[in-house]
Amino acid sequence: MSIRPLSLYIHIPWCIRKCPYCDFNSHARAFSEHDYTHALLADLEQDLPRIEGRKINTIFIGGGTPSLFTPLAIENLLIELNKRLPIEKTAEITLEANPGTIDYERFKGFREAGVNRLSIGIQTFDNIILKILGRIHTQKEAVLAIEWAKAADFTNINVDLMFGLPQQTPDKALVDLQIVFDYQPAHFSYYQLTIEPHTAFAHTPPQLPNEEIIEEIQQIGQDYLQQQGYKQYEISAYAQNQQYCQHNLNYWQFGDYLGIGAGAHSKITDEQTMVITRFSKLSQPEHYMRAVATPDRIAQATVLSNKDMSLEFMMNTLRLNAGFTVKQFTETTGLAFDFLTQPLEQAYQRGWLIRQDEQICTTEMGKRFLNEVLGLFF
């Protein structure tokens, strides 16, 4: 059996309404959780030959808004997955939850179904900013979501917060962090709002704080989290007691993952040839569900070239504070380390990367100029 980590991502593409900043594959439409669950399993069965003999280390149910599904539907899905896949008994199983779609009984049901990690998308506790962001929850509902999750016996909880928001000041951003800290979640995702193409905000941009204020907010946030015992281990991820998100760590360490669901992406390594293939499923839920039992469900497939592999490896691993090791590069890409020699030397000379024994990571300057660092590997 392969020792290469393998994660399973499950995409549930529906929301009550789409947020104006969101560029994920999500749709504000009616759906049948029974029909979609059937489609997910049919999709998986088509992909099983790609991962034969490999164990699933983590499962992440994302969206969209997976918490729109009932606990019974999630339980049935996990039961059926276990019939088809070898899943580690200690696998991290994450479900994303929107505070506007949840209550204690629902959280309790998800926990009993087998979900052992929650990712709660709060973004901010400021009611005015929540309205600008198009969120469907209020400050009160966000606080209740955390309280209900803890009461439902979830000990591994991530809270998503954003900064650099419309009308946000450093003081307001700090209040968001202080409110969450009172509940001691295991994990924070703290990231800057960016205006992505093809979103409502791209068409009608909101007024955001200037760069100086955003930098101040970011620094205040990083300092506060560090003072409260949260270790930053990735650009936007912080954890207490090394409760890192194992699913995302697998992505950032250039591990393999299988994606099922409308618009889901996969990266699979052929163990014999070390050929790495990326492929994605049809993004429109209706089209996906009609084609799910056929090869037509694949929207795009690409075999990575050596240059693609080295660039993607660097794009992922340099997000981590720990960076990567020489052994990790050679084992996950199948390439000789010499492939990186020239761009690495340039990055060392510019003070962007540093090497200590076998470990290579970004310096503080490198983090600020990460796009320029990655440009060396194109």
Question: How would you describe the overall organization of this protein?
Answer:
There is one protein chain. By secondary structure, the chain is α/β, with parallel strands linked by helices. The protein folds into two domains: 6-250, TIM Barrel; 322-375, no CATH class. It contains 15 helices and 15 strands. The strands form three sheets. Strands 7-8-6-5-4-3-2-1-9 form a nine-stranded mixed sheet, with helices on both faces. The chain has a three-stranded antiparallel sheet with strand order 10-11-12, with no helix packed on it. A three-stranded antiparallel sheet has the order 13-15-14. The longest helix has 17 residues, at 211-227. The model has no long low-confidence stretch (mean pLDDT 96).
List keywords for this structure.
378 residues; alpha/beta; TIM Barrel; 2 domains; 15 helices
